[in-house]
Design goal:
By secondary structure, this protein is an all-alpha fold. It has helices at residues 2-27, 31-42, 48-66, 71-80, 94-107, 111-122, 126-133, 138-149, 156-187. It is elongated. The mean pLDDT is 89.
Length: 191
């Protein structure tokens, strides 16, 4: 039972690390930044999946802006006074823009306006992010500090190793399934 429990613990960590790597790659952020954001939103009551969904939606909105689409996002970001590109015309890092969103949201007049802008930028999970932005970028900055104090989450090396282990496990399972089917095919005529 102890060995099985340890095996399940290790497999759970491998799965979590691989999932984190996949989500960070999908969003174009580092695994460290994604963990920091998940900690921040977890402290205001959103799940890790809701955090990822909100960031994915926001990232899509930023991408739409670059392709000339995303008029609603452009209007919302303009209301917040946020520029998504640096002086050289390159996209700013996602988490830098998020801090600016926090600052801009804190300056809006009322809760209804904050909710409207949050939903435009982050989808349904946007309203759940409002407590994070209630004091500007302070919530995100505090989560970054907390992240370090709490041990720094999963290291980049661990996440990379977990992704490789997950891939190796998937490949091994696939090869075993192929082997089992060949054995079964050989044995079937005996039935």
């Amino acid at each position: 039972a102890l060995v099985n429990g340890f095996k399940n613990f290790v497999q759970g960590q491998i799965d979590a690390g691989a999932q984190l790597k996949n989500q960070a790659d999908m969003l174009g952020v580092s695994t460290k930044e994604l963990q920091q954001f998940k900690l921040a939103v977890g402290e205001v009551g959103l799940s890790g999946d809701q955090a990822t969904t909100a960031l994915m939606r926001f990232n899509k909105q930023l991408g739409d802006l670059e392709t000339g689409n995303g008029k609603a996002a452009a209007k919302a970001l303009s209301e917040l006074g946020i520029k998504t590109q640096d002086a050289a015309g390159k996209s700013r890092p996602l988490m830098d823009v998020m801090e600016d969103v926090g600052e801009g949201m804190a300056k809006l007049k009322d809760q209804a306006q904050r909710t409207q802008v949050a939903v435009k930028l982050f989808g349904r999970a946007g309203a759940g992010l409002l407590p994070l932005f209630s004091e500007g970028s302070k919530g995100i900055k505090e989560a970054i500090e907390d992240f370090q104090e709490l041990g720094g989450g999963m290291s980049e090396d661990f996440v990379k190793d977990a992704q490789e282990a997950k891939t190796a496990t998937i490949r091994l399972d696939f090869a075993l399934t192929a082997l089992k089917s060949r054995v079964a095919q050989f044995v079937i005529p005996a039935f």
